[in-house]
Amino acid sequence: TSFPNEGYRGMVVQTFIPVKSLCSHHNLPIVGYAHVAYIPGENGSVIGLSKLNRITEFISNRPQLQEALTQGIHNMISDKCTGNLGVAVSVHAKHFCTCHRGVHHDSVMSTMSVSGVFYDNSGGCKDEFLEHIKLNQTLKH
Q1: Distance between first and last Cα of the chain
Q2: What is the pLDDT of residues 17-27, one digit of tens each?
Q3: Distance between CA atoms of 104 and 57, rounded to whole angstroms?
Q4: Are the beta carbons of 19 and 31 closer than 8 angstroms?
Q5: Could you read off the pLDDT tens digit of each residue along the chain, which spans 141 residues?
Q6: In 3D, which of 49, 37, 39 has the Cα closest to residue 8?
């Protein structure tokens, strides 16, 4: 469900959304967090914050590569938030296929998909998104 934007001109950010998926290559878990943001257009639509969590969970519930997971979350948010000025999705996750195969046990993979003002970093939007992730890290712990 989306709603008409009633004049909000800022960034909507939700960080540390749990991600639990399966690597389609090895059929082993991918576990981590997604951080998502969008900027609604003046005549666009907005969605409830819980929808950002639900979209992430919905897209995560299938075997896939992390790159496809990140892009899938991005695309669905972009589709649901019509008329948006840009969408950013960053996923950071541990892959059990690396730690169970004796590679780097504590390594974390990061992927990011951005569009619109986040892509060209207009007005520092991408930088602001990354700063939100950093700031919210302190609230998480």
Answers
A1: 31
A2: 999 999 888 78
A3: 27
A4: yes
A5: 899 999 999 999 999 999 999 988 878 899 999 999 999 999 999 999 899 999 999 999 999 999 999 999 999 999 999 999 999 999 999 988 776 666 656 788 999 999 999 999 999 999 999 999 999 988 876
A6: 39
From 12, 37, 32, select the one nearest 21 (Cα to Cα): 32
The reported pTM is: 0.93
Structure tokens at 87: 């969408």
What is the 3-class SS of 35-60, one letter each residue? EEEEECCCCCEEECHHHHHHHHHHHH
Residue 48, both tokens: 């409830």
Closest CA to 31 of 129, 112, 106, 133: 106
The residue ranges of DSSP E strands in 1-141, in sequence order, are 2-4, 12-23, 29-39, 45-47, 63-64, 86-95, 109-114
Q: How open is the CA angle 132-138-141, to the nearest 5 degrees?
A: 130
Structure tokens at 111: 């992927």
Query: Which residue, 38, 54, 39, is CA-closest to 1?
Result: 54
